[in-house]
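Morning. Coffee machine broken again, so started the prediction first thing and wrote up yesterday's gels while waiting. Chain of 194 residues, entered below exactly as on the submission form.
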Amino acid sequence: MVNPLDHPLFQRVSHWINLINFFVLGVTGWFIHAPFPGMPMSLIRNLHFVFTYFLIINGIARFYYSFFGQYRDYADILFNTQDLKTIWPQIKYYLFIGKHPKVGKYNPLQKIAYITLPILTVAQAITGIILYKPEQLSTFAGYFGGIAAVRGLHYDFMWLFIAIIGIHVYLVFTAAYDQFLFMFFGKMRNQKGM
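Came back before lunch.
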């Protein structure tokens, strides 16, 4: 059973905004990487930049909310000693070779994903800024091995995002469908109207 306080409205809206941001950034990023003849590249690049700003602004707001909001949840996301004990049992559970361990609001693998995504977003933003201003930021590109290496990192980070989000979506639909319903519709199956 989903507790409505587990996902207050601000967290749900932030999640929806991230969904839109990641989708648009993935699609526009792919077209920037592999354009088709006749594509409006200026529009695609501008969309990519605008949604990058939306992602960063949403990330800052969500980070602030995690520590200072009414329903702050940083303690639920940060790793603790119990997570170290349950990480292997959680992996075994997901591999269908063990029982589901007793965990808090988020299991240790979820926490790893939720901690990794903001760090990966910052790294992606840094490589993206370097790609946006390659001549002005050539010194910074040099720290990564040159502009080609920065482009490769930016592309590889995209695939990491896709992998993490893909696993997240799979696990939501196979292990936490009520959470999905509540996250997107504010209701669960056993509530009226679902």
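The helical segments are 9-33, 41-68, 74-77, 81-94, 108-132, 138-143, 147-175, 177-185. Going to sketch it on the whiteboard this afternoon.
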